[in-house]
Design a protein that fits this description.
- Helices cover 15% and strands 34% of the residues.
- The chain is of the alpha+beta class and 156 residues long.
- The strands form four sheets. Strands 1, 2, 5 and 12 form a four-stranded mixed sheet that branches. It has a four-stranded antiparallel sheet with strand order 4-3-8-11, with no helix packed on it. Strands 6-7 form a two-stranded antiparallel sheet.
- A hairpin with a 2-residue loop joins strand 1 and strand 2 (40-41).
- It starts with 5 loop residues before the first helix and ends in a 5-residue tail after the last strand.
């Protein structure tokens, strides 16, 4: 290799070595549980964990509830969240307000369905607003996979 290229090779190696990532979020702990509505599992709902301002590191996470209303929170496609306090937001878009079936691409994305203005909410709006939600969770250093969020259809 010529001496002219050697500085560029060293620079490239230093750059790659420096981009190995940060240990800032290596402390993710498992977070999971179930969501119910009036005592029945709520499948297909989006559950989001919004970190309180004092959380350090701040790891917002979410998941879509599966069968039995189960969820496992993810942060940037990695399982778990950092320990700390979180506000919990849950929403689930239903069908079209006129009773017609929505296209799958819209029905599976609550944001798009709401933006299109053609859906009704199956989960009460009280749980979908981070400023109003009564739901919260404090995730301990070891994680928590037994969280339960019992929603009431009458919540306002």
């Amino acid at each position: 290799m010529s001496r002219r290229r050697l500085p560029f090779v060293w620079f490239a190696l230093a750059l790659v070595a420096g981009c190995g990532g940060s240990n800032e979020f290596s402390g993710l702990v498992p977070v999971g549980g179930t969501v119910t509505m009036d005592g029945k599992p709520l499948e297909g709902a989006t559950i989001s964990f919004v970190p309180e301002p004092k959380n350090d590191p701040s790891t917002p996470g979410s998941d879509i509830t599966g069968s039995g209303g189960s969820f496992k929170a993810m942060y940037r496609n990695r399982p778990g969240l950092a320990p700390g306090k979180y506000k919990v937001v849950i929403n689930k878009a239903g069908g079209a307000a006129d009773g017609k079936k929505l296209p799958d691409a819209i029905a599976k994305d609550p944001y798009m369905a709401k933006l299109a203005g053609v859906n009704k909410e199956e989960a009460p709006p009280a749980y979908a607003d981070v400023a109003k939600t009564p739901l919260s969770a404090e995730i301990p250093a070891g994680g928590d996979t037994g969280l339960t969020f019992p929603l009431k259809s009458t919540a306002k």
